[in-house]
Design brief:
Layout lengths: L15 H14 L6 H4 L3 H15 L6 H14 L3 H13 L4 H8 L9 H14 L6 H10 L2 H23 L7
Helix pairs in contact: 1-3, 3-9, 4-5, 4-6, 4-7, 4-9, 7-9
Length: 176
């Protein structure tokens, strides 16, 4: 068994800056989400990640199911068991069809019945494959999803890439 690499910040021994971030997390989320145990070692970074994370959690342009598709696909891409287990549950709870979740877990391109969810799945797959999207496909994403959704997917994938890599680096395993 790998020793605990997380090195959680003790609130009683935290710097003033760390204590402010801990208070922000407590006020906004009611707890310190696991990745913040990594980022709190750099409190300015943790502040920025909190802004991004809160935005992703309450996306004004993606449905909860669309957000979870992007998160789960990102976690699978980076082979992050902790994040995969958590967001598999969240995806199903958010209404992502089991067939879509299974396809993502099996590293297959999901076939969603919902036109928009299918297009989000396609865009996420393309972005995780390196972002090389031809003009016709980009035009379809732009016309059917819009620039705000494209930007949101980029940020969600980037944010959860950081989480996935962090959880794997720190050897966190799923609780189940």
């Amino acid at each position: 068994m790998t020793r605990d690499r997380l090195a959680r910040i003790d609130a009683q021994q935290a710097t003033d800056h760390q204590q402010r971030v801990i208070a922000q997390l407590g006020a906004g989320r009611g707890r310190i989400p696991t990745p913040f145990n990594i980022w709190l070692h750099n409190p300015r970074l943790a502040e920025g990640m909190e802004i991004i994370g809160t935005h992703v959690d309450h996306s004004p342009v993606l449905s909860e199911a669309e957000t979870e598709v992007a998160i789960l696909a990102t976690a699978v891409f980076w082979n992050a068991p902790y994040v995969i287990a958590n967001h598999r549950r969240h995806a199903l709870k958010a209404g992502v069809p089991e067939t879509v979740v299974a396809a993502i877990l099996e590293r297959r391109k999901p076939e969603a019945d919902d036109g928009r969810l299918a297009l989000v799945c396609d865009a996420v797959s393309a972005l995780l494959a390196g972002g090389a999207v031809d003009d016709a496909r980009f035009a379809q994403y732009d016309a059917e999803l819009g620039r705000a959704v494209i930007a949101e997917l980029l940020v969600t994938i980037g944010y959860f890439t950081s989480i996935s890599l962090g959880m794997t680096l720190h050897a966190l395993q799923p609780k189940d």
